[in-house]
């Protein structure tokens, strides 16, 4: 029994082999993307490897916030282009504050995940012991 090629909405024909390749490729991609490297590898990581992203976000946020403070204060001292400083200063202030807060909230979330991973590894070692 031979399977006839199916027609797509645009009128082109697709063979069953191409369908299998597409679905198998998608399934492997989904499986790979759903895995977390820390769950599948038990190598210990340094503090910098764990916290480097939130530290960078906090640093950039603080720098943008300070830049916004400088630009906002320039609107008080300089009379030339005062409207530009009044418009851009608060924008940089809010963007910097948003990044700063996001980074500061991210750090306790990472700590909580690390504690959960340690507990799960401890429970797995207990299961393997018994």
Automatic annotation (TrEMBL):
Family matches, as Pfam families: PIRT
Source organism superkingdom: Eukaryota
Bilayer topology term: Multi-pass membrane protein
Residues passing through the membrane, by range: 55-79, 91-110
Keyword Transmembrane found: yes
Keywords: Membrane, Transmembrane, Transmembrane helix
GO molecular function: phosphatidylinositol bisphosphate binding; transmembrane transporter binding
A GO term from the CC aspect: plasma membrane
Compartments (UniProt record): Membrane
Region (Disordered): 1-22
Protein name: PIRT protein
Lineage per the UniProt record: Eukaryota, Metazoa, Chordata, Craniata, Vertebrata
Gene for this chain: Pirt
């Amino acid at each position: 029994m031979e399977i006839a090629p199916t027609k797509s909405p645009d009128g082109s024909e697709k063979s069953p082999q191409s369908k299998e390749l597409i679905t198998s490729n998608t399934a492997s991609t989904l499986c790979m993307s759903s895995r977390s490297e820390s769950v599948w590898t038990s190598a210990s990581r340094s503090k910098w490897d764990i916290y480097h992203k939130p530290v960078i976000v906090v640093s950039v946020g603080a720098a943008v916030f300070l830049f916004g403070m400088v630009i906002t204060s320039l609107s008080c001292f300089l009379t030339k282009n005062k409207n530009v400083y009044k418009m851009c200063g608060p924008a940089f202030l809010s963007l910097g504050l948003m990044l700063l807060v996001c980074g500061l909230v991210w750090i306790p979330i990472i700590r909580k995940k690390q504690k959960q991973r340690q507990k799960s590894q401890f429970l797995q070692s207990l299961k393997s012991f018994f």
